[in-house]
Amino acid sequence: MNVARQNEIIALAAEDDRLRARLEQDGSFFAEYSRELEGVHLRNSEKLVAYVAEFGFPQISREGNAVCVAACKLVLRAISRPKFQRDCLALMRAELERGEVPANYVALLEDRIRYFEGRHQLYGTNADWDSAGRRVITPVEEEASLNQRRSFMGLPPVNLREPVEGPDLGAVDPLRRQEEFLAWLRKTGWRS
Known about the structure:
two-stranded antiparallel sheet, 192 residues
């Protein structure tokens, strides 16, 4: 394996983490999807596409946990690329069967795709603000067995009746934010 390319995957995820932290600190992260962050996500996903084409999806036993987790983060954050995320989910599911990717990242990606497509989640890993401005887990399939599925994927239990802790939207209008989000989903191809 190419150690320099592996280190690049880790560095890309670290760069993304730093930018996210800065945007969270200034309060803009949850208000909108910044062009700067989207640019980083698009560039990083292109580099991961090239890596996967040459070496396959990073495996824990081959590249190590740090590279695999960094790659999983890059996939999760490439939210403007529906086909890329769907293709990676198929790769990650196959690697999960061999124990080569962390199960929680497969669950996170599965739910993210379902959420963007407007479908119910399987693992309840996505939350959004409702019309009252409370952050709640978006709808899930078969609520009665949710925590059993979460446990199987290495996720802690959740209570769907409780608001999810997280940042306050502040002065952002939740209904306007939802309209902008739906427009973004159509623009990026998640929904028609």
